[in-house]
Fold these 2 entries.
Entry 1:
Amino acid sequence: MIIDFTITQNNHTFSDALILADDHTFTNEEIEAMKQARFDNWYTIITTPAGELAPVDEV
Amino acid sequence: MANRYWVGGTATWDGTIGLKWALTSGGIGGQLAPTTADTVFFDANSGAGTVTLGTTGACSTINFSGFTGTFAWGTNTITVAGSGVTVYTQTTSSTFTGTPVLNFTYSGSTGTRTINCGSVTEANSATLNISAGGDTVTFQAASGIKNLNFTGFTGALSSSTTRTIYGNLIFGSGMTTGGNVQITTFGATSGTQTLTCNGVTVTFPFLQNGIGGTVQLGSALTTSNTYTLTNGVFDANNYNVTVASFSSNNSNTRTITMGSGAWTLTAATGTVTVWNLATTTGLTFNKNTANIQITSATSGTKTFAGGGLTYNTLTITETAGSLIIPITGANTFNTLASSQTNAWTLTLPASATTTVGSWSIAGASGTIVTLNSSSAGTQATLTLNGGGIVSSDYLSIQDSAATPATTWYAGTNSTNVSNNTGWIFTAPPTVVNNGNFFLLFG
């Protein structure tokens, strides 16, 4: 089961998908919490300094 | 636990005993078929015949090192239950036929499972389902893999070597990845590969290099590293894309389909090109409705090499200070916007035209935005397309030609440094709407 969702907060829009077993037993509240957790994790990523990275050569 | 060496030559791996399995390499057959407690070997003494997998195979670990024969999987699978050691070793000297699938079933959380697929071709690559466990999984030596599926796995993937994936890559919700150097390459030359992060923030870089292949997202892509498109089609499938940088700077045939999700370039530390489409030869670029944001929580120079393409909104979000954003290429932006907590610099290409549908870049008292050209003394042209006016403020402008005339209002707090044309260093005229018509007071 794929649950596509979009969350917009403070002008930040996040589109993702929850991929759950067809017979999952999560409640709606738990699913909403998972969506919010995804957004929160993403928001942390885009506001946290990234480290120095190794280059990937084009072919 | 016991060793099981294949000595059956051309025969079928099933539940029968025969003379197929020995306790030692090249030894005398007659041992029971392996179970999930046994270590299985196909080696140089297993012959060059064809071993047919006639049942669901079981082992603790399996090792094909030195095997020169053919292993015919058909539609059967092998269950690999071991942990804490090298659980799977493939080799380029043997040939796989059928649909190779290995199911790794260890469900504990101790030790490291090491997998060594070798640099096998797409035709010889196997699907690896790591469906349980909270331990560490690592790949030893460069590995060729068909599908790599971590659904159900909650441990850590250690990125110690490069991997080439010819099928789907699915991360397990709750797992983590480590390492930021070794590349995962998507290498399929036909069909669609699905990349599903399942909420996992990946730490290693991706390289897409399959001529004729497509990589399509199955969920939002978030990596603190880079994504490089060298060949093929990248389809964001309307999900968010969050990468340190995105690059497709070559002349190969490739396509970017941005979709409707938000693209965020998190701009790694130092001087980096966060968006590199400088060379657009061979590129099909579908901007769709996606917007791009550069979020720079680190200082430094973060280049947006747009390649002269048309984009929706590009937003620069500055939070670190000492930020310089050079934009290269004669690009068109439906909107060019920014927000900042510190002063920063936007450098536009000299002797080229940057076209915008709207301009939402302005500094503030104490956080001036410097607007200049990539070549001191040579103007960079800004053109407003579609009518209307630009109203900005707190800019420090140098070497900028703004067109059309009577359109670009820099505001009363902006500075006319030198070599500017077209800019009006006042606030825009007040618009009065009396219900019937508009009056402009210049």
Entry 2:
Amino acid sequence: MKAQHDVEQFLYKQSELLDTKQWQKWIDLFTPDGVYWMPPDASYKTWDGQPAIFAEDKNLMTVRMLRVLHPDAWSQRPLWETNHVVSNVSIRKENKNGDVEVTSRFHMMELRRDDVRHFAGSYMHRLKKTKKGYAIQLQRVDMTNAQAAYDYVLQVWV
Amino acid sequence: MPQERIPNFARMVEPDRVRKEVYTDAQIFEREMERIHETVWIYCGHESQVPRAGDYCTVQIGRQPMILVRGKNGKVNVLYNRCPHRGNMICGDREGNTGEQFRCSYHAWTFQLDGRLKNIPMKSAYEGTRYQAKGGKDNPDCSIKKAARVENYRGFVFASLASDGPSLKEFLGKSIVAFDDMCDRAPAGEVEVVPNCFRVIQHSNWKLFLENQLDALHPSVVHQSTGRAAHEVEKILAKKARGGAAPLSYHMLSAFATVTIDKWDDFQTLNYPYGHCILTGYMGLRPQDPDTLAYDKVMIKAYGKKRFEQIVGVNIHHVLVYPGLSVQSPLQQLRAVRPLGVDRTLTEIWHFRLKGAPEAIYRRSLAYYNLVNSPATLINADDLENFWKCHQGLSSDGGDWVSLARHHGRDIEKNGVVSSGPKMGTSEAPMRNQMKAWAKFMQV
């Protein structure tokens, strides 16, 4: 029960960091070799050597963060906000050392200028138990509408 | 469009400027679809997308929904996605395998993979009608209509919906180098598709996308944020590598900021009949890193030293095949532009694998595909923002013209090829060339 509660709190914190645009703190949630991965569809087994919507280690995450923070990131100049809701949190595997594999469902509403978009899907987090709490080794994001044509694009992590 | 309402297209295009309606008028868009996209050769797909008989994918040519399908005899056919009975679409999915036949989901008419009728249920009910298959299975009234012409160049399949016109090779002219350059860089001399298509919609006219592709001035302005960000991280990684280099993918991104405008001017634009254009420049893809050296070895073994030097010496940054294809052959990326409406355009983005090349070379261009061309692109996002803004501004009464004047009057014409002048790589010559071709297509 304790692990379930801790994992839920961790996932809520992660989405809160995105919605409040605390990019560096969000990146800090990952282990040094952590990867954020969004495959083009659910059939993909690995991010390595494959087409991917996102397949970012911490270095690439830093590029994305620095770009979004640059005053001439034109696409991010107009008003944009997101709102994540995370639910259906389920621990799939729990190792003796406390590492866990967790699945959950998310829904993200995005406001961009005057337009609202919706993205939804599932997360799979592989979390490492550290002294400071959980750290993300792999976050897989399967978006329900990943294969649909993108009306405009994604600029930050979902 | 009734005759009296056809605007004088020649007067909409001047040597150094274009009327704004060319980008915003819905009637002009309809005529473009008729006179350009539904007439000239349009890229449908690569044959490796449909390796087995019955494999199909759907594709839009102008306003026409089409099916690309591998026939039983191995030939790739391009058919209208329409049942001859009630007009129902035959294939509702983007891709799949239809087995030995197409079967309409409405009244179960069946067709061969080349479109010819196979069977109509309740055949006797059609006796004495025009649909009676008296012409045998070839009765066109009972068959799926085919594209007027289909040609395949080194695996790249094109169709033309007009029965007359130049052959594919005549139409492509020098822009055919896009496919030669891509295939020749493979030790096996051919490429295969990486089975994933990234699809992105932009809120603007299709021509803005094509014009932007060879606009060598825009990267330094538009993509500064990503270039700088990648450069920051690249420096840190190079330092950590102790004299080594950061992965090449960082350089591909940082180049957007570190390649200054005068360096872009060192490149050249080459402009051809039918609106095709090339931007030269090679993006530093011949470094002396171990991956490249290993690739060079395989290539020399396949082609011999002399031919190898010719192949990797081809100096191309980007080829634009008018009116709907943008090819970065050294990185094996291909973007097909599908107009959806006067203010809506779909780009379908593909990556190809060089057959016989080491895995590391595939991964190098894959990194570019993911970072630049995925729906989480670090580059195209800012282009899309500009396209939307362009469409908003062009729809206003704030002005009537779009300027194409950069380095106008300094183009050099020789043997039918127009090149930008020396040190004028940022010239708007490609836009002028595209509009010249456009006016010619539209006036016919």
